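FAQ

Q: What does a record look like?
A: Structure on top, sequence underneath. For example:
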């Protein structure tokens, strides 16, 4: 699984001697895991084997230890994570691992009827269960170079965040047709095949996976902050198809694949064969990473989320404790139905604010986001995010305006199984009212989530 999709690493398994002394019951082993984790007495293990460049970051406190790329596990990195549930089940002895998290949140907002286009706290002034997630996965062994290895991944998600992960054709009527507040989504289901003899290793992913480019991922432990940037709130989330990732050298990685389009199943109406091509370069010092993607490329004609996306990400590490992450993209669709025109848009999508008299028009959006992150301790970091989105024709948010948001967050870990992320955020629409059902030009929110790993 890519760093983009991986929760923060948890403590290593106990040694065999310590495992023999562990409690014999399921509940006893689970209780011991949390006690040791929260008190800092979990046994430490030697650094795992690894090929390629060293990890640039510490995780925890940051969500990932490597510069992110999507659509693949980190090639050359061993899976040594041990999780509370698997430790309780079998002492974390199996390569197939079952784990997950529960993530409730609370927010207070100047808006009364909802915080959209802000996510994940879309419902204003509420306590919500954003995500209850269960993973079943087996990562391929990409450290070895001798034989082909296979991995797989299944995800089950329940909560308010299902509306942001919904993929047309995968139980999507809950959101697209019925607008339920809570719902279930089988977010990810794919097979990984690792082929060691191609360059420094190749991974082939087949199935439904997180759309490849970007700093943020919808599954909450993988993000710097609780709420998402405007940039991420309107771009694609999951794709269904096949993607090959090749580690050419320790610094260069390339990707190519074909999908049925963004946020749509291959069998659903509106699916289009779409190409994805990406390249990632990391400097030898690991202080910089550049990741460029052309994502979901086809004729660009209007259909359900048929976005043409050109995305670039730059990570820069100033020191061991300071780093920044910047992402920019342009997206568009052609022939988008005009608001108030005779052509009806797809359910739960917006038309475009076209020039008077036009039935359809070209609808682009441009966005850029920057994170500045400072590690304070092994358990804490602060992050400041600045974000700009120009929804030129209002096709992504429903309002044709330029948006900005600024968010300040403190992340605190209790051991490596509980994370608390309070934040303050200010949003502004520069051209017209866009918040609280179009009655406000600005919005201020105070929010926090809590992530409990099991």
């Amino acid at each position: 699984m890519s760093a983009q999709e991986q929760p923060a690493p948890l403590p290593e398994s106990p040694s065999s001697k310590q495992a023999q002394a562990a409690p014999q019951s399921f509940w006893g082993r689970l209780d011991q895991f949390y006690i040791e984790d929260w008190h800092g007495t979990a046994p430490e293990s030697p650094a795992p084997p690894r090929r390629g460049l060293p990890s640039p970051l510490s995780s925890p406190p940051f969500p990932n230890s490597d510069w992110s790329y999507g659509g693949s596990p980190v090639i050359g990195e061993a899976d040594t994570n041990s999780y509370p549930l698997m430790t309780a089940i079998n002492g974390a002895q199996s390569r197939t691992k079952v784990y997950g998290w529960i993530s409730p949140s609370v927010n207070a907002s100047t808006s009364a009827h909802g915080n959209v286009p802000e996510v994940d706290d879309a419902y204003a002034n509420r306590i919500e269960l954003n995500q209850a997630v269960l993973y079943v996965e087996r990562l391929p062994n990409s450290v070895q170079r001798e034989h082909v290895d296979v991995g797989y991944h299944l995800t089950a998600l329940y909560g308010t965040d299902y509306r942001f992960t919904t993929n047309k054709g995968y139980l999507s009527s809950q959101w697209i047709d019925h607008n339920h507040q809570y719902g279930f989504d089988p977010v990810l289901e794919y097979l990984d095949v690792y082929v060691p003899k191609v360059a420094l290793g190749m991974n082939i992913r087949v199935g439904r996976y997180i759309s490849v480019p970007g700093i943020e991922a919808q599954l909450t432990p993988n993000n710097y902050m609780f709420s998402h940037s405007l940039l991420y709130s309107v771009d694609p989330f999951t794709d269904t198809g096949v993607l090959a990732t090749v580690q050419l050298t320790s610094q260069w990685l390339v990707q190519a694949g074909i999908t049925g389009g963004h946020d749509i199943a291959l069998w659903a109406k509106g699916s289009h064969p779409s190409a994805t091509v990406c390249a990632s370069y990391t400097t030898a010092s690991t202080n910089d990473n550049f990741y460029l993607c052309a994502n979901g490329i086809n004729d660009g004609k209007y259909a359900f989320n048929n976005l043409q996306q050109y995305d670039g990400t730059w990570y820069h590490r100033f020191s061991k404790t300071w780093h920044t992450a910047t992402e920019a993209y342009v997206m568009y669709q052609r022939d988008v139905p005009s608001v108030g025109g005779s052509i009806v848009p797809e359910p739960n999508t917006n038309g475009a604010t076209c020039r008077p008299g036009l039935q359809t028009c070209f609808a682009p959006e441009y966005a850029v986001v920057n994170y500045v992150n400072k590690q304070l301790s092994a358990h804490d970091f602060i992050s400041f995010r600045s974000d700009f989105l120009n929804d030129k024709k209002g096709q992504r948010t429903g309002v044709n305006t330029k948006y900005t948001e600024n968010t300040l967050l403190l992340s605190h870990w209790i051991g490596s199984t509980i994370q608390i992320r309070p934040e303050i955020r200010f949003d502004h629409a520069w051209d017209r009212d866009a918040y609280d059902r179009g009655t406000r030009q600005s919005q201020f929110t105070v929010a926090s989530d809590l992530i409990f790993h099991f």
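Q: Is there anything notable about this one?
A: The radius of gyration is 22 Å.
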